[in-house]
């Protein structure tokens, strides 16, 4: 079992010193989803929503959120991301939109939190843009799908459906 790295020997919150860690290529992929009414989904799909193109706005929100993760999550390190991508999969049989984020950099610490923040911000933006039509929308699950780089190397969620992945060019 691992130990919590953001606690010092006295159990106090602590920002981890990553100076002695090796710089490696690091990436992470995360997902979230928003389930909604048929009416809200139809407006989302055809872009006729009163507030505009919700998917375009959500993509930008996800990218911006990844870049600001250290400002939102207290003990995260500010990172020089080299790539942030947010893609969408429309699931009409479920009135659901799935968002998948991908973050990458060469650095001393991972980008899992940035990928999760991007996916969550995209989901929250979809909710915000569609809430007038359907305030009962549900967000989730939001979860890490894959990460690579660093001392621990690659990790992949066992129940992640790689065939259903939006991003295919990693």
UniProtKB/TrEMBL annotation:
Keywords for the protein's UniProt record, in alphabetical order? Lyase, Molybdenum cofactor biosynthesis
Q: Which organism is it from?
A: Microbulbifer rhizosphaerae
Active site per database record? 128
* Family to which this protein belongs: Belongs to the MoaC family.
Q: Output this protein's name.
A: Cyclic pyranopterin monophosphate synthase
List the PANTHER family hit by this protein, alphabetically.
Answer: MOLYBDENUM COFACTOR BIOSYNTHESIS PROTEIN 1, MOLYBDOPTERIN COFACTOR SYNTHESIS PROTEIN A
EC number(s) from the headed UniProt entry: 4.6.1.17
Q: Where is the composition biased (Basic and acidic residues)?
A: 151-170
Domain Molybdopterin cofactor biosynthesis C (MoaC), first and last residues per copy: 15-150
| Phylogenetic lineage | Bacteria, Pseudomonadati, Pseudomonadota, Gammaproteobacteria, Cellvibrionales
